[in-house]
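#struct-help
A.M.: can someone run this one for me? Single chain, 106 residues.
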Amino acid sequence: MESHSGWIGKENFLEIYGAAHMEAFTPQNIPASFTVTGIELFNPNVIPMSKMQPSMEFSTQGTFPMTLPTPVKHVATIMRDAAAVDLSRDSNTPTVTLETPRSHHL
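D.P.: on it. Structure tokens below:
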């Protein structure tokens, strides 16, 4: 690597950095740097396809980590109620029961 001594500024930064970058980031150095730090490179063959299983759904109701503004709450309530389809009736057509939000000031 070429040695540089002296001032580094806007005028010569890219030239100095470019030379160091080209020498450091080689196809041999990149995987070696991961190995040295203990990070395994991606290997899709680590787990054979015969051992793979489809994902299982454990939660059917998500949560949102912050308080929603009132209009968004109303829309979320309407959508949640619309998803609560009553399939227990004799009809082949599902029915949806929607409730109107109580008097809220928007």
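A.M.: thanks! Residues 75 and 101 are 10 Å apart (CA to CA).
D.P.: also worth noting: The beta strands are 85-86, 95-96.
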